[in-house]
Design brief:
9-stranded mixed sheet, 23 strands, 15% strand, 634 residues, 24 helices, alpha/beta
Length: 634
């Protein structure tokens, strides 16, 4: 096979010349072979110049036909059966030309000769080209990475075409759960059922499995991925169904399996009227607009035609980044980037009044458990005082709706961050009662768990650790968490806020909890690697259990008590929570503010324990500055 390399590497014009010369030889063989087959001898005709004139004319016409039908422009490597059809059409016309030229030169021509000639010509010209195509394909696939395609439907067939034209992969087999397709072949590649996975991976030394299931539900994809995670193969998937339909799929578009597919959580179609209620044709403001949730809220909001969107953010870079991104997406929308801190009520109130804000989504918060645990006073100021001042500014500016982005960690909190978020909820509940100030602002809170891909999420951390060769760090082997995609969380927040009647605590259905250790193992397996442990000391990536961080729970809760009600949305519930009146809350807030201002950590801890938050700390005071000062004084 290697001796053919000089031919493969020839310039394209030279290859076309070779094709023409070979076709002339084939026409010669077909022409005289047809006479020999019919007459048993060609001696009588070989010496007659008229037969040679007919041959020359037929050869010239045939080459012209092949040229005009594009046969010489076809690349042998990508040749299809369409080329054989083209050859057959050209051969039929060529056979007809024999009849015409024979009549013109008045030579003897048996009626079966043109048919035999055309048959010979198709067999040689078409067959030779297909043979070369298969020889080229066989030569090229050597050294390529063997892959399996999971899914033998339309998407799988198109993916096969893309893969077969690449220089990197070759398809060893198809896998499909449809029994009717078992043992059928697609372009020469056999379709097998799922139970043959282990045998195929071992036989073909498969390193990658390509998922071609764009229309499958998340739960169906999860089922497949869980099976594949048991094998040392990397799992990749096609981007989306639209790329398949449009025919724009490219081999370099194959990507890692989306982590949401591991969760198996199918999204519920959003309620359009709820999405638009507090946004369409209204002035909307998002605090913490540059954060994970805040930025996604902005992306969702601009889809529903607000008159203006105010981006309120303390970080200049985060504000610049989200402002630039949104201007590219919606250049016609009025975007107002405002630098400011939510603890500055005057700045908030001026902004809301200047732009006549109708709806506020309050996403600004310190949310990383260890960071707030190490910086208690700042967490208290930002999360509790900042939320209350933003709410008071909304009242003064006659904002119609104020939605707080809360967290599952506010439920029976074991850490300072969760406690500050519960205190923030209590503040809005107190304002919603309106004991001291009558107002028209509707306050609501939306509580949910972890979101995939947010800053500080374990997913990007695990992927980075795997890319570096490990180890992957997990705090505890039994720790579980609820997960949701950021876009789904943002959509549900907007819909929940639209259902608010005042003081509502909405709880998002987070689905089934995920064991973090299993998530880490699946990510390792789906990267084509093996977990290194006592049972497999020769594995690739080790999982290290580092112990729970300060204030961290083994599991998170989403509700306080059992008084839970359904709403008109399948994924949104309401919870009836303990609340306090505004006068009591203001007294608590004054004490918290003074203690935070004085950096009085024991006082802050005492106030948090006395407040109706359900705070049950797992650690003592962990504020870093206080600990350092405390150690020096002792």
């Amino acid at each position: 096979m290697l001796s053919l390399n000089p031919i493969w590497t020839m310039p394209r014009p030279a290859k076309r010349l070779v094709s023409v010369v070979v076709d002339i030889i084939f026409i010669f063989i077909a022409f005289w072979g047809a006479f020999y087959s019919r007459m048993g001898s060609i001696a009588k005709y070989w010496g007659d110049p008229d037969y040679w004139y007919v041959f020359a004319a037929v050869a010239l016409v045939t080459l012209v036909i092949f040229t005009n039908t594009g046969l010489y422009r076809a690349v042998l490597r990508y040749l299809s059966l369409q080329a054989v059809v083209t050859v057959a059409f050209g051969a039929a016309l060529s056979g007809l030309s024999i009849v015409l030229f024979s009549y013109y030169f008045q030579i003897f021509l048996p009626r079966s000769v043109p048919v035999i000639y055309a048959t010979f010509l198709v067999s040689m010209c078409g067959g030779a080209r297909l043979l070369v195509r298969f020889l080229v394909a066989d030569l090229l696939v050597k050294g390529r990475i063997p892959v399996l395609i999971y899914g033998a439907g339309k998407a799988g067939r198109q993916l096969y075409n893309v893969v077969s034209q690449s220089d990197e992969y070759r398809v060893a087999a198809f896998i499909d759960d449809n029994r009717k397709m078992h043992k059928t072949t697609i372009q020469g590649v056999t379709v097998f059922r799922r139970k043959y996975l282990a045998r195929l991976i071992d036989k073909h030394k498969v390193e990658k499995v390509l998922l071609a299931m764009p229309s499958a539900t998340r739960s169906e994809r999860k089922s497949v991925i869980e099976v594949l995670s048991d094998y040392p193969v990397e799992v990749m998937t096609i981007p989306n169904l639209s790329d398949i339909v449009s025919g724009e799929l490219q081999i370099d578009q194959l990507k890692e399996v989306a982590i949401e597919d591991l969760l198996g959580r199918d999204q519920v179609a959003p309620n359009q009227s709820l999405l638009e209620k507090n946004i369409k044709s209204k002035a909307v403001m998002v605090t913490g607009a540059g954060g994970s949730i805040g930025s996604e809220l902005c992306r969702q909001i601009i889809k529903h035609q607000p008159t203006v969107l105010i981006l309120f953010e303390a970080s200049e870079y985060s504000l610049y980044r989200i402002d630039r991104e949104l201007r590219q997406i919606a250049p016609e929308l009025a975007l107002i980037p405002i630098l400011g801190n939510v603890q500055n009520q005057e700045r908030l109130q001026q902004t809301m009044q200047a732009y006549h804000v109708d709806t506020v989504y309050h996403a600004a918060a310190y949310k990383h458990v260890p960071m707030v645990e190490f910086n208690v006073a700042e967490g208290m100021k930002n999360n509790v005082l900042g939320t209350y001042r933003a709410a008071c500014a909304a009242i003064e500016a006659n904002v119609s709706s104020f939605v707080l982005i809360s967290t599952d960690k506010a439920v029976r909190p074991t850490n300072v961050m969760g406690t500050t978020k519960r205190l923030a909820e209590l503040g809005l509940q107190a304002l919603a009662k309106g004991y001291q100030v009558e107002h028209s602002t509707l306050f609501s809170m939306v509580r949910f768990g972890n979101v995939l891909g947010s800053s500080g999420s374990v997913i990007p951390l695990f992927k980075a650790q795997i890319a570096k060769g490990g180890p992957v760090t997990v705090t505890h082997k039994d720790i579980i968490r609820y997960f949701m995609t950021i876009p789904e969380a943002a959509q549900l927040v907007i819909q929940a806020g639209a259902m608010g009647k005042g003081g509502d605590v909405f709880v998002l259905d987070m689905g089934e909890p995920v064991r973090i250790a299993e998530l880490a193992k699946n990510l390792i397996h789906l990267s084509g690697l093996e977990v290194k442990d006592s049972n497999n000391p020769d594995g690739d990536i080790e999982i290290l259990y580092t112990g729970l961080r300060p204030g961290e729970k083994l599991f998170e809760e989403l509700l306080i008590g059992d008084n839970v009600s359904e709403t008109s949305h399948d994924r949104i519930m309401t919870a009836q929570e303990v609340s306090i009146d505004q006068l009591t809350y203001n007294e608590l807030l004054d004490d918290l503010q003074q203690a935070a201002q004085d950096y009085d950590q024991p006082r802050l801890r005492k106030l948090m324990l006395e407040a109706p938050t359900g705070f049950v700390p797992t650690d003592g005071i962990r504020d870093l500055v206080w600990l350092q000062s405390h150690e020096k004084n002792h």
